[in-house]
Amino acid sequence: MRQITGSDTPIVMGLLAIMLAVLFFAQFSMKPRLWLYPLARQAVMAKLDYETRNMQEVETEHFLIKYTADDADQVALVAEAAEQAYQPVTSLLGYVPAKKAVLYIYPDRVEMRKAIGWSGDESAMGVYYNGVIQILSPKVWLQKQDTAETFIHNGPVAHEFTHLVLDYQTNGNYSRWFTEGVAQYAEYNINGYEWITPTNHLTGPLYTLAELDEHFDELPNQALAYRESLAAVRFIAENFGVDKLRQIDSSLAKGNKLETAISVVLGLNYEQYEHDFKKWGIDHMEDR
Q1: How would you list the strands of the sheet with 126-129, edge to edge?
Q2: Using CA atoms, how far apart are residues 3 and 114, in angstroms rounded to an integer?
Q3: Kindly report the CA angle at 140 between 143 and 62, in degrees rounded to 5?
Q4: CB of 86 within 8 A of CB of 161?
Q5: Which of 34, 35, 71 is nearest to 56 (CA)?
Q6: What is the pLDDT of residue 24?
Q7: DSSP class of 104
Q8: Torsional class of 64: left (φ above 0), alpha (ψ -120 to 50), beta (otherwise)
Q9: Is 252 in contact with 173 (CB distance < 8 Å)?
Q10: pLDDT at position 150, please?
């Protein structure tokens, strides 16, 4: 175990303050997640900020971007993608974060896995986790013929920023499939992008909402799980209006369960909602 030194004092004191706040408020709060989750998220952000204290950083109007010297030539591109995503995403969700969003750029997959805590061969262009966006350097996956627009259109920034906004808006009170559906809908709404593969057509056997709710990341056909999530969110936005999607987010922010929020806002029981969005997806999404 590493010995705590004087340089660790700010982060240790911050964690102690959070623990004391948890003990105090737990005696009075009816819905502790609404205040407990932001405190836990802040603790993780403080830890990551300390661990990356040697990274360089630059601030834009809405983002704090941290990077290594290897990616100094990539910062302007990432900043452009982030700022272009900011207004469309916050307008779509009807929520503006109180502080600048934090975004980390990692120079290679090894460093990104290490920072996120992945032990295997997991790989992704971007991840949102506990208050921060973490992305792989554009130079790792962009081809020579690609342009800045390729990264802005196909890159991970808009998707991960949507996760961040929804997370702060609802204090983490959402199902995994719902945040993935909303993030994909933002990409579709902003860039017209949909993740379509030979294995995620909606005409075959589909996962149930219960499976998506309880086992999203363990489902064997991840492409299908993501596609169903997009169908579920697009069904709401395109049949009931984006305002209803925002109302569901607001209900989650009050601590209500997703099933309750959807049923009350849409006036459908959860089973009928599941039936309707699946049928709608087959009729409207297969050939697009």
Answers
A1: 56-59, 63-67, 101-106, 132-136, 126-129
A2: 21
A3: 105
A4: yes
A5: 71
A6: 46
A7: E
A8: beta
A9: yes
A10: 85
**pLDDT for the residue 163:** 98
Mean pLDDT, each 10-residue run in order, the chain (288 residues): 38 49 45 77 93 95 97 96 97 97 93 76 81 94 78 91 98 96 96 90 94 96 97 98 98 96 97 97 79
- Are 92 and 189 in contact by the 8 Å Cβ rule? The answer is yes
Tokens coding 21 = 């706040």
User: Which ranges of 26-67 does DSSP label H, i.e. alpha helix?
Assistant: 33-51
Long-range contacts of 97-102 (CB under 8 A, 24+ apart): 97/164, 97/165, 97/168, 98/168, 100/59, 100/62, 100/63, 100/64, 101/62, 101/63, 101/64, 101/133, 101/161, 101/164, 102/45, 102/63, 102/64, 102/66, 102/131, 102/132, 102/133
pLDDT score of 20: 45
Residue 1 has what pLDDT? 31
Residue 8 is predicted with a pLDDT of: 46
Instruction: Provide the residue type at 232 as one letter.
Output: A
Write down how long the chain is.
288
List the one residue out of 172, 250, 130, 263 whose CA is nearest residue 209.
263
- What are 35's two structure tokens? 């205040």
* Cβ pair 116, 134 in contact under 8 A: yes
Tokens matching residue 121: 């061969």
Q: What does pTM read for this prediction?
A: 0.87
Report the alpha-carbon distance of residue 81 to residue 206 in Å, rounded: 34
Strands in the chain per DSSP E: 56-59, 63-67, 101-106, 126-129, 132-136
